[in-house]
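Weekly modeling sync, notes
Attendees: S.R. (lead), two postdocs, one rotation student

Agenda item 3: backlog of single-chain predictions. S.R. asked that every request posted to the team notebook include the full sequence so nobody has to chase files. The rotation student volunteered to paste the first one in as an example of the format we agreed on. Action items at the bottom.

Example entry:
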Amino acid sequence: MITKRQIYRFICAGFYSCISLTMFSQQPQWNKGQSFIEAPDPVVSDGQRWLSVKPGLHASFVSVDKRFPKSVAPDIPVEKEVRLVGWRGERVSAQVLLWTTDSMPGVKVQVTDAVAPGGKKLGSVGYARFERYVITDTYGPGCGWRKPGDFPASLSPDMLDDLSAFNLERKKVRPVWITIEIPRTAGKGIYTAKVAVIPAIGKKQELDVTLNVIDLVLPEPQAWTFHLDQWQHPSAIARVNKVAAWSVEHFKAMEPQMRMLANLGQKVITATLNKDPWHVQTLDPYEDMIIWTKEKNGRWSYDYRVFDKWVSFMMGLGIKKMINCYSIVPWNNEIHYKDAATGKFVDVVAKPGTPAFTQMWEPFLKDFVRHLQQKGWLEITNIALDERNKEEMGLAFDLIEKASPALSVSYADNQKTYQRYPNSRDVSTAVQHPIDSKDLADRTARGLNTTFYVYCGNNFPNQFTFSDPAESAYMGWYAMAAGYNGVLRWAFNSWVENPLVDSRFRTWPAGDTYIVYPQARSSIRYERLLEGIQDYEKIRIVKRLLVQKKDQARLDALNAAITKLDNNKRHDGWNSDLNAAKRLLNEISASLVK
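Predicted structure, as returned to the notebook:
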């Protein structure tokens, strides 16, 4: 397996600043409510299927499991009704496809109030968002340098835009994502609503939504047990919003983005200990959170003000289970500090096992523990590492144990490090190299956190912009089936140069660096990941109720459906098995509260 670390050895310094993967040179428009020009479709359609499409605007419900090419006329049975099922507090989704042979400006899509047969209103709980097409590529070899011309490009509907109206193009399709947020106070029963498709000129069309609300309550995201760890990237938000890092304006811009993460049930705050720990593997270098200063007398001092502000900000959004601090072994082994004698910053290579490593990290770790104790954060803070080799990790762990035994560790592990250090608080193993079942059972019994991670080295399940939408939901079910506490993904918002238009990047398959878009725009990947996490929580609750009722038959049936999803490789029938398990979960849920 090729790791990100191995790939990065081949990256020449400064190359990232001169390569552009976008097709446009104009300044991008990031603001919500502002439209922008999508890239031309790189896939040329022969147009033959459009010859059989009748004039006018066409609308139909379609599966949320399918992405529709922009320039190909759909060959689908028209469905004017969709049936949705959900618990109180759950967010459920549907998808509408629009297509036309003529240009149609100013088309609106609106969801009416949901109403019960007796007239009782659930309220305005639904809304529609136009899906936007971004340039994507293919998986290819996975990790590794890639140029746009080396991989087939296409357009993928992924971003969900909040425009109030959309100009439909001639002989193009436009998917629309429908979201229903069921209030936790909702009464059980069947509700109906309309999806109204309203052209600026012409007749309004209406599609029917039937919603079955089950009388079980999904807890608030902060209370979910699923351990979600998506690494945050504050510097990318500063660049996109053109604000100074760590300024008031920066935190204001981060709030809606990070609230989206909190609403997924995120458990971990991503923090940095020193200079960009990944050595600019992303477009935007990570800005310092802690400033190290070597004073004139040779002693060290540390400025934690940004670190404290960032952690407090994220905790205020409800993300407070863990603080994972990267990294005692940065990718280039450099430490970045200010020399008080000259007033300049200095970069020093300090490899694990060398005197420089101990001399610089030992005083910091001791001071860091003192600071964390003052803040009351010590018990939730981990020194984190990402895919380091076993020699480096061993030397780093030895120093942590010597200098600050009260600190625990967290790491993304592709070398079975968890077997050498069985007491690590937080371990994530690559999905294609699952943790040994005995080790997983032992860690679970001792209350230690164990997740799997997805990255450029595995093509299923994953969240690239070309991935099947249901893969995002599958990850929640796979975690339950395999016995993991949750999932780690390396980037929530490490945006490329123009993420609204082109999701490709210089080293990873398209979309690997982010699952949400600037100005808190959602995506199909975000919505389906949320769906899978909600299912994980529902399974946990339903299993407990079945045990209480001593209903072994249905518990066995549910477990059998879940076991079918304990497969980390793409296989025939995986999506059908997922949907069958989801139906069974909702059927059992409904029967428990009759």
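Discussion: group reviewed the output briefly. Residues 2 and 512 are 16 Å apart (CA to CA).
Action items: rotation student to repeat for the remaining queue; S.R. to check formatting next week.
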